[in-house]
Design brief:
Elements (H helix, E strand, L loop, with lengths): L2 H7 L2 H38 L6 H27 L18 E4 L17 H10 L5 E4 H120 L1
Antiparallel strand pairs: 1-2
Helix pairs in contact: 3-4
Length: 261
């Protein structure tokens, strides 16, 4: 299913929820990017705030030496691009409208151009020297207009492509989560139906067992009554037999007396 078709099949509530999720994702990405740049700047500043033990003077001298080297290297690069001599003291990382050049650099080096050269750390000077003419370039202002326009267009296309890719991935993820939730719901419904069936069967079996128990109790009660009646009859029969035996003995005795007479 295409993403556009999937989006059309969603209810308005689902689309609103998706829009809210994507907006939150966009805001979160922007916040994390800003936090990362801030932490990077803090780390670069930290390099200059932690002096070595008993070697602070030497560290300051080392920093001044690398700052001078960095100014000289950047001045040479700017002079080559402008086609004229350019002094080290005129080098600016934060350029203004009066400067005849601007800097082009990748996004990961953006923090280097957010403060003055004299305020940077030794690590920043080393990085500037190593990256100039490789990823960092000075561009004359006149030539920068065309380059800047092309760069902005390229960045916009890349940014839009990244956003589209992120939205597609998010849509696929949400569709997968929705399918998983539906499947889990079906499984829970089946389990609930099975449990209900088992409960119903157990209730039927319990009712049958109770009926059989009542029937057995009735049979036992009848047997007890019959046993009681039988016991009474046996006792009466024994009494009658005893009376009969006594009567026979009496008659025989009288008969013998008559004969003797």
């Amino acid at each position: 299913m295409q993403i556009g078709e999937a989006a059309m099949m969603r209810s308005p509530a689902d689309r609103d929820a998706l829009k809210a999720t994507l907006a939150a994702l966009k805001a979160n990405m922007a916040r994390e990017s800003a936090e990362f740049l801030a932490r990077l700047n803090d780390l670069l500043d930290l390099l200059d705030q932690v002096p070595a033990i008993d070697m602070s003077k030497k560290a300051n001298e080392e920093r001044a030496k690398w700052r001078a080297r960095c100014r000289q290297r950047l001045a040479e690069h700017i002079g080559e691009k402008l086609g004229c001599s350019f002094g080290p003291t005129d080098v600016r990382l934060v350029t203004g409208s009066d400067d005849p050049y601007v800097w082009t650099y990748p996004q990961q080096h953006g923090s280097l151009f957010q403060k003055k050269l004299s305020n940077h750390s030794t690590g920043a000077y080393v990085k500037l020297i190593g990256e100039v003419e490789t990823t960092i370039h000075a561009v004359p202002v006149s030539a920068n207009k065309t380059t800047e326009a092309a760069s902005r267009a390229s960045d916009a296309i890349a940014s839009d492509s990244d956003k589209i890719q992120q939205l597609q991935e998010m849509c696929l993820f949400l569709e997968s989560e929705h399918a998983r939730a539906v499947e889990e719901n079906i499984q829970w419904q089946l389990q609930a139906a099975e449990a209900l069936q088992l409960k119903s069967s157990a209730e039927v079996e319990l009712a049958i067992a109770r009926a059989e128990l009542h029937s057995a109790q009735d049979v036992i009660q009848d047997l007890r009554c019959q046993l009681t009646a039988s016991s009474s009859a046996v006792q009466e029969s024994a009494v009658l037999e005893a009376y009969s035996a006594n009567g026979v003995d009496l008659i025989l005795g009288r008969s013998q007396k008559v004969r003797l007479r």
